[in-house]
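Provenance and format

Records in this collection were gathered into a single text stream. Each protein contributes a sequence line and a token line. The two records reproduced below are adjacent in the stream.
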Amino acid sequence: MYPFTKEECFYRFETINKTDDTNKEGKMKGKCFNLIMLLLSSCVFLWGCSRIEIQKPAKDEVNIATPYTAVVRHTGCGTAVPESFKAWLDKDGDSPLEISDAFSYAQETWTAQDYNFPRGTHTLTARADVTTGASCVEDKSLAKRTFFVAPCADFVQAFGENFQLDPDTLTITYGPTVVTLHQGETKILRIPENSPYLVDKKLSAFITYSLRNTTGNHLKIQVGLQHGVPVLYRNFLAFCRPDVVITEQHKVLFADSSSPLPLKLVSYIDESPGDDDMTVFFRANLQIVIPPF
């Protein structure tokens, strides 16, 4: 009756609802709607729904202090299949990290006791198979939770005025090449068109810098790197009392240009970057030259 899975149905129903409702799409929409209603009513009126839930961090725990005990639980009907459990940090990102082995299982619950989460913003993804019966609907087999990790959780938001670069430089590294930029300096990097460090005609490089919290208080700031208009990355940093200086390294993609562009390391006050809502830690000029420039 239904030639697609529940997940496909939800996706198609949502997509079709936003697109042209042709006769074919209308029929699919109707079938999806019926399946969705059947599943939802089954969860309500039958024995129940089977769900994989991330209980810790909870939804309202946007900041956690590491080490931290993460908890994933199977709730509702059915029986979890322990060996099917998988967990990742940033599964859909550039550097996914599987952490399944950090969890132990007992009574429908997987626990990562005092796990040392890496600092920064991360998304925990957890999934597991569940054995269901005739009166049990598998409503959710995968869960996600995004949170910020720091050595402390009692920090307050800051906007850059209490921080300084230490040392007052920014380093760009690609392969064996290390380039140090000083405040106000202009540099031109010429990259061969056959360079192994080019990705989609952009230079793939690591930028490194160190920021000092001049107050000693627990503070959190949002730092970003701009090359010309584009924002190459944005990230939150938390400064706890023992960590007066934090050294950060991030992978970025530099586009080529016909002239040097402003390169700025900034702290954002608002969500939308602009000269009126940021503190500038570092400012230089950088041109990436890739043939045929």
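Adjacent record:
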Amino acid sequence: MTRLVFILGAALLSFLFSCRPSYVKGRYKIKRPMYTHAICTVDGSYMYFNWEVNGDKRRVTVRGYGDKSMNGKVFNVIYDAQHPNNNYILQDQQLFLPHEHTTKTMGMVYRSRKYDCFFLFNKDFAGWSYVPKGKGIKKGDKFEVEYLPQNPERCAIDFEKSATIQIPAYGSGVCIEYMEGIWATFQFEIKGKRYTAYSLSQPHMVIGDRFKIVYDTLHPEHANVLLDQPMFLPSEHIGKSIGTLLKVTPEGCEFYYLPEKHTSKKYKKYQSFQADSLGDYSNLKKGDKFEVDFSPSHLERAIIYLNRPLR
């Protein structure tokens, strides 16, 4: 009898403890998951996530960073059907409401950290997002971005939809904006329509630099800038000079050149090694000289030809 009472008592305690809110790695255990959405409002250093369950208004407060760009953003909420106080704001799952008209484009991650990232899209805008746990995101990765045209700060990057190129075609893109050492924006034209592509920036990059671009024939917004293939258009007037290597890295080289008859100033440029080239760059060293083409109308634009050495 005593043993039976002990077993029943243990079972009752086990049941009671299972009904209490408990945490798993900082989250409540949610046995009967339900989903809804929460709208974020920012006040000072606080963020408030407001949501409803069956007409019952609820709020989750987050203290520590009151980023104004979060104001008005909508996020997925998971909660327990029987214990709505057991909930979690999924800040890596931003939503748009059914009545909101959105536009989709491609964006590029220009800064990546363990739990979050910053990305560019639509030529002039930048966004921020949490990164789902276990998702390996790195600088330069490209994904689909959804945003509100009337309020581009309301944007969400979809890490499940990367910029794949199924049917490749090639063109040329011109740099229209950049932040040295971080990102660059390029514009290219297909059948009279202009598109935007993003890349990481290079040292000594300038507005007007032109590179080969590969894009998807069916979805030209899926495009990659080939930074190892700088180019001039056939219609451009080209000048000749001598380039001297200043620094050689595993990825590329820095060089300087003097556009004679145009200026006495020396210009510096960086050029990536071609990934598919058969050339051997292991023997390159500081002081080596090669042929350089430059633009007389824009002296900071130049290409060094590492297969044309000079003595």
